[in-house]
Amino acid sequence: MVIKPPPHPAYDLTAITRLALSEDVGGQGDVTCMATIPDDMEVEAHLFAKEDGIIAGIALAETIFNEVDPSLKVEWSLKDGDYVHKGLKFGKVHERAMADDVHRALLLETTKNAPVLRLVDKWVVLIGGGRNHRMGLFDMVLIKDNHISIAGGVTNVLKSVDSYLEKRNLQMEVECLCVLTS
User: Is the full-model pTM beyond 0.70?
Assistant: First the structure.
């Protein structure tokens, strides 16, 4: 059984999804993916539970994937409301497409900011005396384990990013220095 979102007279889920995706890529795309994933690569992303819990959001994920690229092949082994344990694979996304579509589809990830409220979240940090990091996926390279895996290792991903950065005025950040020594 699919559970639909509660009705709201002024809330358009598709419009909010479009706005959140646009906000995340800033009209420029995900610079880390563009720097690390070959343009014509065949991509298969597996979705795993990070913790024990209950699946919630598959219908929303379908809306997001459809907005990114209606031709994406998405397979679910569970449905909203099903129990999961940490590490369980519950979905798969497969695509063979040109770079922009792959880059947008591969790394649909949650951010530490509430979708469509990014500027408010960043403002609150500044008011509280903090410092903002990056605004979105478009203004700084942030290499994570998925980029390293797709590129075939740390050396390959760093070479790809270095080449990409030579052509643009962007910064690179390493999530963990231990990655550089492994």
Answer: no
In this predicted model, what pLDDT tens digit does every residue of 137-166 receive, in sequence order? Answer: 787 788 888 888 888 898 998 888 888 888
Q: Which of 128, 137, 165 is nearest to 68 (CA)?
A: 137
Structure tokens at 11: 């809330």
> Closest Cα partner for 87 from 46, 126, 121?
46
Token pair for 123? 């403002």
> Quick one: which of 79, 88, 94 has its CA closest to 45?
94
pLDDT tens per residue across span 82-138: 889 999 999 998 875 433 443 344 343 334 566 677 776 776 677 667 777 777 778
**pLDDT: is 40 or 62 the higher one?**
62
Alpha helices in the chain (DSSP H): 13-25, 31-36, 58-68, 99-106, 118-127, 145-151, 154-166, 177-181
For residue 31 the two structure tokens come to 């610079």
- Tokens 């998405």 correspond to what residue? 74
Q: Residue 76: beta bridge partners?
A: 91
The answer for residues whose C-beta is within 8 angstroms of residue 131's C-beta and 6 or more apart is 125
3-state secondary structure of 94: strand
Beta strands in 13-155 (DSSP E): 42-48, 53-54, 73-76, 83-84, 89-96, 141-143
Structure tokens at 117: 């409220």
